[in-house]
Amino acid sequence: MTCFTVCFKKKASSPAKQTSAFRKACTAACAYICIKASNGNSERNKDEEHVKLFSYKELQLATENFNPRNKIGEGGFGSVYKGRLKDGSLAAVKVLSTESKQGVREFLTEIILMSGMEHENLVKLYGCCAERDHRILVYGYVENNSLAQTLLGDGYSNIQFSWKARTKICIGVARGLAFLHEEVRPHIVHRDIKTSNILLDKDLTPKISDFGLAKLFPDTLTHISTRVAGTLGYLAPEYAMQGQLSRKADIYSFGVLLLEIVSGRCNTNKRLPAEDRYLLERAWQLYEKRELVHLVDTALEDDFNVDEACRYLKIGLLCTQDMPKSRPAMSTVVKLLTGDMDLHEKKISKPGILSELMTVNSNTSYTSSSGWEKQDNSTSQNRSRTYTTMTSPSIYDRSN
Ligand SMILES: Nc1ncnc2c1ncn2[C@@H]1O[C@H](COP(=O)(O)OP(=O)(O)OP(=O)(O)O)[C@@H](O)[C@H]1O
Ligand SMILES: [Mg+2]
After folding, report:
1. Closest CA to 315 of 276, 294, 341
2. Among 154, 192, 201, 340, the one annotated catalytic
């Protein structure tokens, strides 16, 4: 029995409680299950039985009726509350907004993908609630918020990000991604690696969160054509422009993230002079001038190893190469970061830069047929995320 069967059982026992949107989303989510089943995946099935279905009342109690005082964040699909569950454990309760059809689909995807997956660098999914039109995900609470809010300063933070802490975060995220890409069967492409989806626990161990956009990848394929979903600034060119999704798209996003962690700045900062605005462009200019060290976060003062910091920045450039096949696999990235593999022989060319896409009005979405369009207001909170209209998922041969 899979997690999905669990959801269906619940549905069958109380049909009046289910909306047609939810039923449609179940059908859509079935596509993922089919890919998975046809691939003979049995490794995770036994664990998937353990996804807990919470009642709405239970989650109301846990969050003091979703008290704004307990609200810890807001994303494109809804609000996140801190709560204490009946067993005493702390949880992050993510309530998906009911208007967002996109959210329903992501909701189911996330449950299917995350159930039973355990890794030090992945957020733990405790369970979900699908009562009436409520769609709620319940995660293990991660103490130190996201990299976006702490390192990049969306909110107040007193965390000191020493060089050692930064290397631990980079290596942890790389390990989490290598696990999803290379150990889980079928592989999982996350599709939305970015600073707000990297949470930090009390020891600053990074946890990759938000698998709502993730896709299961049969072993026999390296990329599929799909609608584009992700966040501007992190999108690989081949994915943003042609909808070609592969693990290499995540590796590109990881490269951008790596540059952000070492430099302590966002991938795009429109307040800076033009030549400094886009982190990736800046990194390439400095690399060509052999002055990469100027990109390292000045907040580190002298607390860093120059060679190591420049090596990290070069790995960031390597991960963002224009040609997907030039980007190293995540297990290789882990070795490069830890120093178990030499970077010397790796050729670094100009990265794939999408700055022209980044200059587009932030409240727009990209569609494969008609270019940039106004985004649906139901997801307007999600300022820089992009979606395309659905394209039928045609499948390509292994080519990279
Ligand atoms: N498991 C968790 N533990 C602690 N805080 C969390 C947890 N999950 C999410 N949060 C907090 O809630 C915030 C919102 O998360 P959410 O994933 O909904 O949106 P986002 O990542 O900011 O944006 P997007 O919707 O574009 O992914 C996070 O930035 C984080 O601060
Ligand atoms: Mg998120």
Report:
1. 341
2. 192
